[in-house]
Amino acid sequence: MCGITGYIGFRDAYPIVINGLKRLEYRGYDSSGIMMYNDKQIHLSKTKGKVSDLEAITNKEEGRRKGNIGMGHTRWATHGVPNDVNSHPHFSQSGDLVIVHNGIIENYDTLRKELISRGYVFQSDTDTEVLVNLIEEVKKQEGCKLGQALQLALNNVIGAYAIAVFDKTKPNEIVVARLGSPIAIGVGKDNSEFFIASDASPFIEYTKDAIYLEDEEMAIIKLGKAIQVHKIHDDSIVDANIQKLKMNLEQIEKGGYDHFMLKEIHEQPKAIIDTYRGRMLPDEGIIRMAGIDDNINKFLNAERIIIVACGTSWHAGLVGEYLIEDKARIPVEVEYASEFRYRNPIITPKDIVIAISQSGETADTLAAIKLAKSKGAFVFGICNVVGSSIARESDAGAYTHAGPEIGVASTKAFTTQITLLTLIALKLASKKGEVSKPELRVFMQEMQLIPKKIEALLKIEDKVKEIAAVYKDAKNCLYLGRGFNFPVALEGALKLKEISYIHAEGYPAAEMKHGPIALIDENMPIFVIATNKGHYEKVVSNIQEIKSRSGKIIAIVTEGDTQVKEIADHVIEIPETVEALTPLLTTIPFQLLSYHIAVMLGKNVDQPRNLAKSVTVE
């Protein structure tokens, strides 16, 4: 959540920082700000609203854009309402220090009262202004440099943070630190310039060399010198591991699509291929996954698998539960990561915890991982971002290879996560002897066809748009599915809620008569997954119950279906496939429906209100 950008070097900092903020808009925010230093003074510009509103302010005065040092921030409000004053960056009381901060300082109120007793006056309601003044107070009391003052101050802080601090009395350096919130440092040639950002997207056209700070690490960035990385709590020096970025600029541009979300929906065939490429060898009847192969005995001897995730990733985990239990016959539980550690769960060394997160930075999922490891469980991470916190915290894992996902509402993350979970289920089933080589080969051959079948589905987008136009003004919707497609119903409802703000709920189709049926009338659209695989006749009966109460039925059926076509108001056909793979197809019409309804309603599809792409606070 929120976004940090920064630059120190020989270039004009303003275009780098402001364009970096635009690249980070997908993370979700409600205000923005920028600091520029021009060798004499600091210019601070900030406002409630979008980065475009910030640009309008800075364009009024050329001096606000001058300088070779700058820091920017997009804020998602935690402490204090979204307004100009609470926006970042924040000054210290003397005006010497400037800070940008992602995260939450949990003991800010105690620190604030102590600083007030020492004569500090606060301009904002934020925990961030408390932090910058705490750093200033420590620097003054200890008579130390900024790096040491930051280190000492953070030892008195409870919470999560990614911060960058500039001191105008030492204008050749910026100090950054992290705990629970990501921060990346781009390194220019010969240390002649440095870039700071919440992820690498703001600086990929300038450098491919990046350092990702680990938790409880601090970096002192000085022009012309190699970066020094220290542990915050004991000041030990850490090797600054420079990684080569694999991302390219084209991947984070819209490529001719109106929105990132639509682009990412259409990227799913390629993303799925990239996820199973090299791992799935159908002709040989082999699945290769190093994270599983290297730890196969742990998986085969596990008493159960616990999947922890949030949001869309949780829905993918539910599909994974069906897959692993059905194919590998290993008990699986799926937990909301946000609730997992607060209910004192029973975890043993015989458990395997699979943690799923697109960004690899989800705070609740990270906390669940740490709890599981403290109980001796083996943690397997599934994420999309190389070098992310979850990738580093896990004992083993696998990347989805979906490519950057910029739209806040996940699409290709969902289908690539299901793809990986399918491979895991098949791998374990093969090793346990639950599936024969010929059966495995046939299943993998069918899986190879899924990308082409998604491409065929994407060609009926115009029909989906027609249906979207009919139901765009609905106030409430129900999504129903059974078996493997119950989680898809949940995901379809979530997509509609996220980007159109229409209330929607997903249910197992059979649960409809245990409550939701009371809501059904002629104004209620009900989206039903009624493929010919798995409980088809039961779902048809559920549809009949809806029809008898005048509900509007939009059904997803298998090509060639005749029975549901006679009952439903609208039908969307998907290609034939095996039951376990249907979620990869049934989710596509729901994604397109949500997208087009939101566009027709004039909503901000890529940056829906109140939401952030990566939830890095609890």
Word description of this protein:
The protein has three domains: 3-251, Glutamine Phosphoribosylpyrophosphate, subunit 1, domain 1 (4-Layer Sandwich); 260-458, Glucose-6-phosphate isomerase like protein, domain 1 (Rossmann fold, 3-Layer(aba) Sandwich); 460-605, Rossmann fold (3-Layer(aba) Sandwich), CATH 3.40.50. α16 (461-471) packs across α19 (583-600). By secondary structure, the chain is an alpha/beta fold. The strands form five sheets. The chain has an eight-stranded antiparallel sheet, covered by helices on one side. A seven-stranded antiparallel sheet has the order 5-6-7-8-12-13-14.
Features of this protein?
618 residues; alpha/beta; Glutamine Phosphoribosylpyrophosphate, subunit 1, domain 1; Rossmann fold; 3 domains; 8-stranded antiparallel sheet; 7-stranded antiparallel sheet; 27 strands
What's the SSE blueprint?
Blueprint: E1 3-8, H1 13-23, E2 31-37, E3 42-48, H2 51-58, E4 69-75, E5 90-91, E6 97-105, H3 108-117, H4 127-142, H5 146-154, E7 159-167, E8 173-179, E9 184-187, E10 194-197, E11 209-212, E12 217-222, E13 228-231, E14 237-238, E15 242-244, H6 260-266, H7 268-276, E16 280-281, E17 286-287, H8 290-293, H9 296-300, E18 304-309, H10 311-328, E19 332-336, H11 337-340, E20 351-357, H12 363-374, E21 378-383, H13 389-393, E22 396-399, H14 412-432, H15 437-458, H16 461-471, E23 476-481, H17 486-500, E24 503-508, E25 525-530, H18 536-547, E26 552-558, E27 570-574, H19 583-600
Parallel strand pairs: 18-19, 18-20, 20-21, 21-22, 23-24, 23-25, 25-26, 26-27
Antiparallel strand pairs: 1-4, 1-10, 2-3, 2-4, 5-6, 6-7, 7-8, 8-12, 9-10, 9-11, 11-15, 12-13, 13-14, 16-17
